[in-house]
Amino acid sequence: MAVKISMKVNGKAVTAEVEDRTLLVTFIREHLRLTGTHVGCDTAQCGACTVDMDGRAVKSCAFLAMQAEGASITTIEGVAKPDGTLHPMQAAFKENHGLQCGFCTPGMVMNAIDFARGNPNPTEQQIREALDGNLCRCTGYHNIVKSIAAGAKAMAAGK
Amino acid sequence: MHAFNYHRAGSLAEAATLAGKGEAKLLAGGQSLVQAMKLRLASPSDLIDLGKLKELQGIKSDGKSVTIGAMTRHAEVEHSAEVKKAIPALAALAGMIGDRQVRAMGTCGGSIANSDPAADYPAAVLALNATITTNKGKYEADKFFTGLYETALKPGEIITSVSFQVPKRAAYMKFKNPASRFAIVGVFVADFGTGGSNAVRVAVTGAGPCVFRQADMEKALSAKFAPEAAAGVKQKKEGLNTDLHASAEYRAHLVTVMAKRAVEAALK
User: Fold this and answer.
1) How high is the ipTM of this complex?
2) Rounded to the nearest 10 degrees, what angle do helices A105-118 and A142-156 cross at?
């Protein structure tokens, strides 16, 4: 059975007919073709699918698209400025070598942006705890932690 | 996951009617249920989404109890100034569930209705002598959890809120699985400061097939609320879980260790 769904994604209103069982990440990747949001584990552990829903970082593989009805979603494609200027958190990941293969990075950045909004000057411990739900198999997390510290600072400074 | 029919409930009454049909299941945050469906461990015919029911959301505190709406997200409880003031151990427990993205979606009512043997909320429900309110009536905490993923809820019955009693002091200590963040053993200790032999309640999650109260520890801590009183009580390993993460014997040992640490934390 198909159901009708409407939400805002990266500021644009979208409406579609989807199967009831469509996950939010499936809707984002396969219906909207926004493939920056990744599917890593598909079991709600790795966080590669993290997007922002109404101001909170959530795992888009862990619930149904229908649960996002009427919501405002931001994906990694929606965080840079229209002219291509990176979001301060993206810039911080680039400057601090916060990625290697890059697979986990969209989820890391989306979670980090939400975290930094509520924690403008986080401690290393707070950052590491905030990363509980994001797995990286390349970096050992060290530079990710550095990136988030720098990104949080830059966001607080309004850069 | 297998196909199902999705329904967005517009009212509690509508949700109850829909939930009573066939193999329907209620959908709260979906952080357990949707994962179980993806693994085909659950294949409901219909899903009734409670997400738009405003009357199931919110936190109220009146000094004697803290009432949490069933659809209140873990993150809201974790950061609630009211909960932090009235029962800091409850806010701390909510902040230990899963990870921050899961806490942004997962709900109090969903966790309790699911009765996962390693979930955190059931320990708070039992130790804080909570009352579970549904669309059909009320349950005492002691009569609510009946077994592995089993509760006293009847088909079509929907949790609307949970009222936790405010203790004099309390703490929750969790030895977590580093991968899943579920409790290998979690112990919630609450001292209601009433004196007498039932002043303290101790609830254990993660160790057995279902959350349970540790009566010997409650007795010892009611007599003397001190870490050594908890440390002196040994948990029997019989009936506890053995899996790839920990043996029953190890879990039994952890019950005492976590209880002792919880008392230490409650006294701080």
Assistant:
1) 0.95
2) 50
